[in-house]
Amino acid sequence: MEITNIDFSALLNMVDTFYNNAWNRLILILAIVGVAWPLILKVYSDYRVKAKEEKLEKRLSEKIQNLNERNLEIINKKSDANIERTEKLISKKLKNIDIQLNLSKGFIWHFQATICYDNKQYKGALELYFDAVEFYFKGKDEVNLQRVIKYIKSCYAKVKKLSHLEEVENKHLDLIKKLNEINENLRYKDVINDIEEEFDSAKKRLKEVKN
After folding, report:
1. How many structural domains are present in the chain?
2. Which domain holds residue 185?
């Protein structure tokens, strides 16, 4: 086939047009890629940053939660300990108040009983001394308790009527029982024996007088 000048020229134009179009497309593609690639990188980078932030926030949230739970546990333990200490302190204070109140009542009955005793009102003195005994036991005042017991023994020896002795007999037996309860190492052995002997002796004497 013979190629003419016209055909050759047209061919050159076609080739030139092809390469121009191809170059333009390449430039367009490169331009698109040049613009789009940074955007793609930014989107990808933002995604990674956001993912890392979310992961970090999750870990931080978990640590804060664990820390809060631990702190709450510590606070609860401290609160429980403080409450327990407060309850013990209040209980101790109330116990001390109760002891002081019983001692005060014991002293009042002790004082009034001694007035009766000094006035030779032995029946009234006995009743009041036994009231004092009850409060001295509650107040754990063994010093005044023993003082009162000596006066009770003296009243047994001086009371004039058997009925007066019989009226306090149950209190006398209760006193013996309580003394036995605190009789460690037999420290109240002599006191118990003395008061029992004095009571029995007084009872025997008053029965003889009655007859």
Report:
1. 1
2. 96-210
Using DSSP's 3-state secondary structure scheme, residue 176 falls into helix
Percent of the chain residues topping a pLDDT of 70 = 65
Count of Cβ atoms closer than 10 Å to residue 195 Cβ: 20
Compute the distance between CA of residue 85 and CA of residue 107 in angstroms, rounded to an integer: 32
Is 56 inside any structural domain?
no
CA pair distance 36, 131, nearest whole angstrom = 105
Residue 182 lies in a domain: yes
**Structure confidence by residue, pLDDT tens digits, 70-100:** 766 776 676 666 667 766 766 666 677 888 8
Q: What is the pTM of this model?
A: 0.58
User: What sign does the CA torsion over 156, 159, 162, 163 have?
Assistant: negative
CA–CA separation, 5 and 184 (whole Å): 144
* CB-based contacts of 134-138 (< 8 A; 24+ apart in sequence): 134/106, 135/102, 135/103, 135/105, 135/106, 135/109, 136/102, 136/103, 136/106, 136/110, 137/178, 138/98, 138/99, 138/102, 138/106
Decide: 106 and 139 in contact? Cβ < 8 Å. yes
**Is residue 152 a contact partner of residue 126, using CB atoms and an 8 Å limit?**
yes
